[in-house]
Amino acid sequence: MKTEDYSPILEGAGIRPTSTRLLIYEAISRMSDTFSLTSLEDELQSVDKSVIFRTLTLFHERRLIHGVDDGSGLHKFCLCHNHGHCSQEEAHCHFYCESCQKTYCLNEDSIPPIDIPEGFIAHTVNYIVKGICAECAKKRG
């Protein structure tokens, strides 16, 4: 997709599609797994770090990206493939590699339903599998 093709996605989320926001969204859409602010800054060295941070915050508020807590202490995100119109049932699991510290989206693995006790109100669900990714396992032999 061309950068300008993302305009309807941003507009659908109530975001004015400036050239910088489109550039950031395009970079995010190319990432196959989770990403951090730092990895996005490395990808977009010509964009001011504070602009990237504010844009990520806006995208997160409008649900174009989801926060992922993998236990590493870094705030990571993944792209919402439904452009902010996803339901809880569409939430997927993640895999955190304890060797390379990369977090992978397990898009085909939905978070299983959980019976919450009466009176409790769930806001988010986070499902992380920890271990060694295939690439790191190969290196270990």
Tags for this entry?
alpha+beta; three-stranded mixed sheet; 32% helix
Spell out the blueprint of helices and strands:
Elements: H1 7-12, H2 19-30, E1 35-36, H3 37-43, H4 49-61, E2 65-68, E3 76-79, E4 92-97, E5 103-110, E6 128-131, H5 134-140
Parallel strand pairs: 4-6
Antiparallel strand pairs: 1-3, 2-3, 4-5
Explain what you see.
It contains 5 helices and 6 strands. The protein is of the alpha+beta class and 141 residues long. The strands form 2 sheets. A 3-stranded antiparallel β-sheet has the order 1-3-2. It has a 3-stranded mixed β-sheet with strand order 5-4-6, with no helix packed on it. It starts with 6 loop residues before the first helix and ends with a helix. The chain is globular, with a radius of gyration of 16 Å.
Could you provide a short overview of the structure?
Helix content is about 30%, strand content about 20%. By secondary structure, the protein is of the alpha+beta class. The strands form two sheets. It has a three-stranded antiparallel beta sheet. The protein has a three-stranded mixed beta sheet with strand order 5-4-6, with no helix packed on it.
Structural class: alpha+beta
- Count of beta strands: 6
Main sheet strand line-up: 1-3-2
Helical fraction? 25-40%
The topology string of helices and strands comes to: HHEHHEEEEEH
Radius of gyration: 16 Å
* Mass-distribution shape: globular
Report low-confidence residues grouped into runs of 5 or more: none
Mean pLDDT: 88
How far is the first residue's CA from the last residue's CA?
Answer: 39 Å
